[in-house]
Design brief:
Layout lengths: L1 H8 L4 E3 L1 H13 L14 H11 L5 E3 L1 H11 L5 H14 L3 E2 L4 H6 L3 H18 L2 E4 L2 H9 L4 E3 H4 L3
Parallel strand pairs: 1-2, 1-4, 2-3, 4-5
Helix pairs in contact: 2-3, 2-4, 2-5, 4-7
């Protein structure tokens, strides 16, 4: 199943949700910090290494402005000199990631907005618009994405493999 999805979406790309983008950026900064940071402590170095390798299998990596905003709000909890070093690492990587913008009026009129909020609505809309795969760690979002015709991988299922 996984290989089939990778083959189907290799060229189109993959869209990351908030937690997995944060894991990826924190891991790029310092994979030893993953377990220390409150927002990524449920992951470890191996999760990051798997994610980094997995993302290389796609021609494009996408995010939405809403995902980026949430990541930045969480990242601001990194203190002191670590924050500046994290920002330098994150900015360098984010400059090569593609952002898909969806107008707020479109998001607010989507039926799913009332169930999953603005960020997940931006992910659903973008995935459909870009015809790309989504990767998440959120079981509720995973189920909702799938129910709305968006091919999605839940990293927690893959961690068991």
């Amino acid at each position: 199943m996984l290989e089939k999805l990778i083959g189907k979406y290799k060229r189109a790309g993959i869209l990351l949700d908030t937690n997995l983008l944060l894991l990826y950026l924190v891991g790029l900064y310092d994979f030893n910090f993953i377990r220390q940071f409150k927002r990524t402590c449920m992951y470890d170095k191996n999760d990051f290494l798997w994610m980094r390798k997995f993302l290389t299998r796609f021609d494009n990596i996408f995010i939405t402005p809403q995902v980026l905003g949430e990541v930045w709000n969480f990242a601001e909890k990194i203190h002191g000199k670590r924050l500046n070093a994290f920002i330098e690492t994150a900015v360098a990587k984010l400059l090569v990631v593609t952002e898909n913008y969806v107008e707020k009026n479109i998001l607010l009129q989507e039926e799913c907005f009332f169930y999953v909020g603005v960020t997940d609505t931006s992910i659903i809309y973008s995935a459909k618009e870009l015809n790309c795969l989504v990767i998440t760690d959120d079981l509720r979002a995973y189920a909702y994405y799938a129910a709305n015709g968006v091919d999605t991988i839940n990293i927690n299922h893959l961690r068991k493999i």
